[in-house]
Amino acid sequence: MTSRTVETPYGPARAELHCAPEGRAALLLGHGAGGGIAAPDLVAATRAAVDAGVHVALVEQPYRVAGRRAPAPAKQLDAAWLAVAEDLGETWFDEVPLLFGGRSSGARVACRTSAEGQAVAVLCLAFPVHPPGKPEKSRLDELDGVEVPALVVQGETDPFGRPEPAHHREVVLLKGDHNLKADLEGVHRAVAEWLARILRPLD
């Protein structure tokens, strides 16, 4: 495991790199709004990806590196994320396809930036479809805007809602709520099986 600091337009971000032997792709994973890269579902997804021969970069947004818990505005999150993706794509992961992903807020960033960042697929852990109790404030347009294969791993009782499967989009429902802690083996299994399927054509 290696840590790399990356300068972005909004301050330094940090990437924790977990490299797979002979990695055939690289997955960038972002954290939730008030959480960090040690979230159990991110750890489970990282383990699944490395087991599947995929490098992983767990990305800490600049506001978290600076010690703040309140998230930055979406525009800043997206710009910082793309800066990290560009840096890692040119240095560590220069010869492999990039996948974007994250949990909750990090999943939203991955969706919004997938086209500009030329991601070949998107992994969403606990995508927050809407704020709890406010289904009218839907964020599904961010998910619907993804034009590459996407996997959403969602808790059955997630108060942030749950999306339906769609073109290019698979949805795996697991026991539990927004933190996905109730079935971490399910997270690992879902991510591993999906990566094996979508990366086969890229080999």
Task: Describe what this molecule looks like in 3D.
The chain is α/β, with parallel strands linked by helices and 203 residues long. Helix content is 32%, strand content 25%. The protein has helices at residues 40-51, 62-65, 74-91, 105-113, 140-144, 184-199, and strands at residues 2-8, 11-18, 25-30, 54-60, 98-103, 122-125, 150-155, 169-174. It has an 8-stranded mixed beta sheet with strand order 1-2-4-3-5-6-7-8, sandwiched between helices. Helix 4 links the parallel strand 5 and strand 6. The mean pLDDT is 96. This is KANL3/Tex30 alpha/beta hydrolase-like domain-containing protein. It comes from Saccharothrix variisporea. Residues 24-181 form the KANL3/Tex30 alpha/beta hydrolase-like domain.
